[in-house]
């Protein structure tokens, strides 16, 4: 980055109101010095002189009165058209506002025109900054003191990095929202965990002391704030029931859930993508009808029922596979992965088919065929490649559903994952566990969505080129 | 070489023409489907009830052998008729001869064995000219007869509920009324416009909604709509949509199943005994499937079949409410966001982002964990977690619509925001929402059963399908049938809604197909 890029980036960022705030926050001293310089110089420079001259000139032409008369006619006509009645003073007020605005614009434009002819520049924050940046001493001090500002300026110049940063920022915001939402739901709940934990014989004193131990007697905002603080420090608190740290429990169970999810995804993609491709390339054939019927069937089968039926068939009747899950035995992973995977493959196959059918009739596919490209290449590169975006979206969305819906499958196959952990503890309800589990899964889902959004920008040339002007 | 290529092309196009002819013939599509399904059923019965017992060393029951034979004969008959239709449709005449049409009567008679698809095929074959009204009446008759059949299973029980014969009588009368309406349909509705004399029948048909018979209800609405349509040259749009929907046979089957479940959940109040579904009867504990208990009994001796029949009502109600509520809430939010844009849009969408970030089942679990297990909380949980989805669809749709000229025209004329939203934007952005809602009912039924399975759905004694399944899952090793049949019921209803939704999408937007 040379100095000119710094200057340009500063100009562009300062124009955007959100980024202006960030410049102030991250680079307070630099921006403050620039601001002071700007305030000192403003009104004393050559441009201000030109402006006063022009203003006198325009006043001499009675421009203000002319504009006001025009504006009054305009406002009156408008009211007449919409059949609105307004008092004269109202009309005049509105007209005056319009006239003043117009006058200022004309004045500024004229002044700028003249200034440009005389080679005089208007003083702005950006021009002050670029003047200051020419000073070697300021440059070094500024970079040292306001390093965060320069980092964000650097990100701003890279479209994809800028997009990713904005998305990550949004994600953090959303996560706080999720914590607030789930916490509030659990806070206003009529269910009382203390009775379930201390037992029916607990006295009021015991309940009170238990509540104060967990800080449940504090007001809503204090508790909410504590939860936020816990989130920032990655400490999800201790479970009510066994006082074990929730973060540890989740940490030990999450890999299991992720493993099941990953293999389900593999199963789903292996089934869905080829089925979708063949259905789209040879539509309205027997294969298409049968595949799409099974896809619809896959959408309609409850996952847990399919799991039970597979247990019945493969584990109980045929004795081929073990019934319940064991992390050390990969055979036990087959059934869960298949059950979840088939359910997911249904929607992916349908999306693959419809998205490819849409692309199939495009002109560039015809061109590709006309220039004699091999059919495989046409299908895989031109049709599938361009139909990829909706497919990836579906995969990403079902990833979220998968992590959430895993709770049911985990229950069926006795998998000791995060979903079954939440379900087991929600009967109490063990608030730190439910809160922590839901927030953790939401975090993973958001992260997956973020990765997919960035992936779009990387794989799709259309989005990539749009990004350049982002 | 060129000759071979040429011949190949000719074959390809001739095949295409043939397929198009066959696909356009309602007689052929219904026959083919009836043939496929009947033969699958016959083979399934043969394997499951005849071959499997023999393999295990037991003698198969006589009833099952007869049943298998009947279905096999039916499949052969249907195949014969189908081949004949195929030959005649693709032949020189291109039309089905009267002799073949008379065979339809044979197919209609097969309804006695419960083969509804052959009945449909027969009814479509017998008559040469079929309009939408004719089809609707046939389907409505079919649903009524099916309800009577299902109710008759109660005859094998020791005692019937007091209102049983009242209910059966009512339904028989209703079936007869259906036949009368069928005659009237044949006589009055085949012109460009329905005859004035049909209007009383139309009114009677609309009243059919009281028994859950949506087909007759739609028939009444259509005939009245056509009658009131002043300009005969222009067709009514919503009637066109229904016509397109009924051209798609899979969608029709979906609708048929949905209407059957709705009618059954209303009719079961008269002909089924709610006591058998909820009260314990330890004499019949874990009874095997038999004519008395078609799907067996659970651990408390409750008849699973009766529980499933009553469960249809609960599942449908939960599905409906937890689809309609989020549509209203999400629709309003989405419409506001899309129409006003700017800060309102940003605010609403950021809040919905938060809701969207939590996987829907988890949000439902959190809500139920907080408020306790009950049906109302379940509906609340399901509704809240599906609001963002609908809001998103409506917003995207509204964004597209509100940039169009007619909205600009309305704004220029000085229409109020409310008028523009409710009169112009919402009706024009409804189509994807309707499709999504149809599928949404199905997925709400799925979510309900999943949550019930986790013990988070409705109260355990309520005969909801997920509950029945959960009760059965503990006896998977010894009595698997308790878990199998509820699952099949869930699949059937969700599949029906999915078929319906798919058909509706094609009907609403012919461009998409």
Relative helix content of chain A = over 70%
- Whole-number average pLDDT of chain A? 83
Gross morphology of chain A: extended
* CATH architecture assignment of the largest domain in chain B: Orthogonal Bundle
Stretches of chain B where pLDDT falls below 50 for ≥5 residues? none
**Protein structure class of chain A:** mainly alpha
What is the CATH superfamily classification of the largest domain in chain A?
A: MetI-like
What's the architecture of the largest domain in chain A, going by CATH?
A: Orthogonal Bundle
Distance, first to last CA of chain B: 37 Å
* Main CATH class of the largest domain in chain A: Mainly Alpha
Strand content of chain A: under 5%
Report the strand count of chain A.
Answer: 0
Shape of chain B: globular
Number of domain units of chain B: 3
Structural class of chain B: mainly alpha
What share of residues of chain B is helical?
A: over 70%
Beta-strand portion of chain B reads: under 5%
Strand elements of chain B, count: 0
CATH superfamily of the largest domain in chain B: MetI-like
Condensed summary:
The complex is a heterodimer of chains A (470) and B (513). Chain A has 470 residues and is mostly helical.
Describe the structure.
The complex is a heterodimer of chains A (470) and B (513). With 470 residues, chain A is mostly helical. Chain A folds into 2 domains: 3-158, no CATH class; 246-427, MetI-like (MetI-like fold), CATH 1.10.3720. Chain A contains 23 helices and no strands. In chain A, α1 (3-15) runs antiparallel to α7 (125-133), α10 packs antiparallel against α22 and α15 crosses α17 (331-360). The mean pLDDT of chain A is 83. Chain B has 513 residues and is mainly alpha-helical. Chain B has 3 domains: 12-128, no CATH class; 130-271, no CATH class; 274-303 and 313-511, MetI-like fold (Orthogonal Bundle). Chain B is built from 21 helices and no strands. Chain B has helices spanning 2-24, 26-55, 62-90, 98-109, 116-126, 132-152, 164-188, 199-207, 214-228, 237-247, 249-271, 274-278, 304-340, 342-357, 360-371, 375-402, 405-412, 417-428, 431-453, 465-473, 481-508. In chain B, α11 (249-271) packs across α21. Chain B starts with a helix and ends in a 5-residue tail after the last helix. In chain B, 46% of the residues are buried.
């Amino acid at each position: 980055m040379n100095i000119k890029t710094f200057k340009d980036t500063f100009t562009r960022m300062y124009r955007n109101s959100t980024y202006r705030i960030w410049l102030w926050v991250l680079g307070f001293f630099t921006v403050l010095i620039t601001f002071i310089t700007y305030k000192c110089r403003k009104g004393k420079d050559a441009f201000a002189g030109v402006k006063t001259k022009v203003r006198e000139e325009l006043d001499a032409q009675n421009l203000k009165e002319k504009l006001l008369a025009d504006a009054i006619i305009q406002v009156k006509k408008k009211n007449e058209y919409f059949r609105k009645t307004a008092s004269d003073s109202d009309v005049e007020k509105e007209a005056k506002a319009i006239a003043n605005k117009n006058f200022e614009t004309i004045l500024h434009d004229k002044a700028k025109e003249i200034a440009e002819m005389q080679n005089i520049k208007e003083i702005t924050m950006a021009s002050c900054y670029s003047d200051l940046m020419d000073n070697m001493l300021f440059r070094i001090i500024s970079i040292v003191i306001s390093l965060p500002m320069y980092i964000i300026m650097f990100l701003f110049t890279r479209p994809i990095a800028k997009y990713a940063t904005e998305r990550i920022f949004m994600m953090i915001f959303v996560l706080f929202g999720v914590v607030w939402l789930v916490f509030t739901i659990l806070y206003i709940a009529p269910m009382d965990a203390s009775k379930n934990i201390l037992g029916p014989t607990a006295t009021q004193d015991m309940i009170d002391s238990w509540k104060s131990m967990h800080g449940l007697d504090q007001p809503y905002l204090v508790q909410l704030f504590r939860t936020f603080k816990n989130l920032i420090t990655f400490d999800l608190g201790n479970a009510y029931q066994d006082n074990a740290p929730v973060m540890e429990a989740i940490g030990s169970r999450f890999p299991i859930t992720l493993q099941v999810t990953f293999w389900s995804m593999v199963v789903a993609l292996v089934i869905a993508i080829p089925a979708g491709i063949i259905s789209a390339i040879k539509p309205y054939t027997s294969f298409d009808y049968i595949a799409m019927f099974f896809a619809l069937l896959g959408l309609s089968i409850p996952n847990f029922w399919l799991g039970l039926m597979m247990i019945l068939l493969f584990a109980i009747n045929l004795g081929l596979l073990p019934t319940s899950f064991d992390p050390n035995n990969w055979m036990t992973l087959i059934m869960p992965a298949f059950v979840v995977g088939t359910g997911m493959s249904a929607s992916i196959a349908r999306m693959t088919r419809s998205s490819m059918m849409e692309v199939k009739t495009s002109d560039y596919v015809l061109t590709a065929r006309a220039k004699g490209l091999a059919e495989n290449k046409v299908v895989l590169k031109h049709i599938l490649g361009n139909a990829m975006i909706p497919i990836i979206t579906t995969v990403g969305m079902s990833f979220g559903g998968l992590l959430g819906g895993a709770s049911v499958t985990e229950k069926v196959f006795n998998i000791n994952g995060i979903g079954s952990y939440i379900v087991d503890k929600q009967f109490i309800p063990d608030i730190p566990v439910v809160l922590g589990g839901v927030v953790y899964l939401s975090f993973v889902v958001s992260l997956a969505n973020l990765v997919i959004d960035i992936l779009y920008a990387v794989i799709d040339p259309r989005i990539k080129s749009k990004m350049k002007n982002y | 070489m060129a000759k071979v290529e040429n011949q190949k092309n000719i074959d390809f196009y001739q095949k295409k023409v043939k397929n198009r002819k066959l696909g356009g013939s309602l007689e052929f599509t219904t026959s083919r489907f009836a043939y496929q399904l009947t033969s699958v059923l016959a083979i399934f019965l043969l394997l499951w009830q005849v071959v499997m017992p023999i393999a295990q060393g037991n003698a198969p029951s006589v009833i099952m052998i007869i049943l298998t034979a009947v279905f096999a004969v039916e499949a052969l008959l249907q195949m014969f008729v189908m081949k004949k239709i195929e030959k005649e449709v693709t032949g020189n005449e291109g039309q089905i001869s009267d002799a073949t049409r008379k065979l339809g009567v044979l197919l209609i008679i097969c309804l006695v064995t419960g083969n509804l698809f052959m009945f449909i095929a027969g009814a479509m074959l017998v008559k040469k000219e079929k309009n939408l009204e004719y089809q609707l009446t046939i389907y409505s008759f079919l649903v009524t007869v099916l309800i009577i059949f299902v109710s008759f299973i109660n005859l094998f029980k020791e005692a019937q509920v007091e209102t049983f014969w009242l209910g059966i009588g009512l339904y028989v009368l209703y079936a007869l009324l259906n036949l009368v309406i069928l005659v009237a349909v044949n006589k009055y509705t085949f012109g460009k416009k329905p005859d004035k004399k049909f209007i009383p029948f139309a009114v009677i048909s609309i009243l059919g909604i009281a028994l859950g018979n949506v087909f007759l209800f739609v028939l009444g609405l259509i005939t009245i709509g056509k009658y009131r349509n002043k300009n005969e040259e222009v067709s009514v749009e919503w009637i066109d949509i229904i016509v397109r929907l009924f051209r798609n046979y899979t969608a029709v089957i979906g609708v048929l199943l949905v209407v059957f479940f709705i009618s059954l959940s209303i009719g079961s109040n008269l002909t089924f005994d709610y006591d058998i579904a909820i009260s314990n009867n330890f004499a019949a504990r874990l009874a095997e499937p038999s004519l008395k208990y078609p799907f067996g009994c659970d651990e408390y001796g409750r008849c699973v079949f009766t529980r499933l029949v009553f469960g249809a009502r609960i599942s449908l109600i939960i599905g409906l409410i937890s689809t309609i509520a989020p549509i209203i809430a999400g629709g309003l939010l989405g419409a506001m966001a899309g129409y006003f844009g700017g800060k309102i849009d940003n605010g609403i969408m950021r809040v919905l982002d938060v809701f969207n970030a939590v996987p829907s089942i988890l949000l439902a679990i959190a809500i139920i964990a907080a408020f306790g297990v009950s049906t109302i909380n379940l509906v609340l949980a399901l509704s809240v977690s599906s609001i963002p989805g609908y809001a998103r669809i409506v917003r995207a749709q509204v964004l597209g619509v509100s940039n169009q000229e007619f909205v600009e025209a309305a704004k220029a004329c000085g229409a109020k925001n409310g008028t523009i939203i409710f009169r112009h934007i919402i009706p024009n952005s409804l189509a994807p929402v309707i499709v999504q809602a149809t599928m949404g009912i199905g997925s709400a039924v799925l979510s309900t059963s999943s949550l019930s399975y986790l013990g988070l759905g409705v109260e355990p004694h309520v005969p909801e399908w997920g509950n029945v399944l959960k009760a059965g899952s503990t006896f998977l090793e010894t009595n698997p049938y308790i878990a199998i049949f509820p699952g099949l019921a869930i699949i059937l209803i969700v599949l029906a809604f999915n078929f319906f939704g798919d058909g509706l999408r094609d009907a609403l937007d012919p461009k998409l197909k």
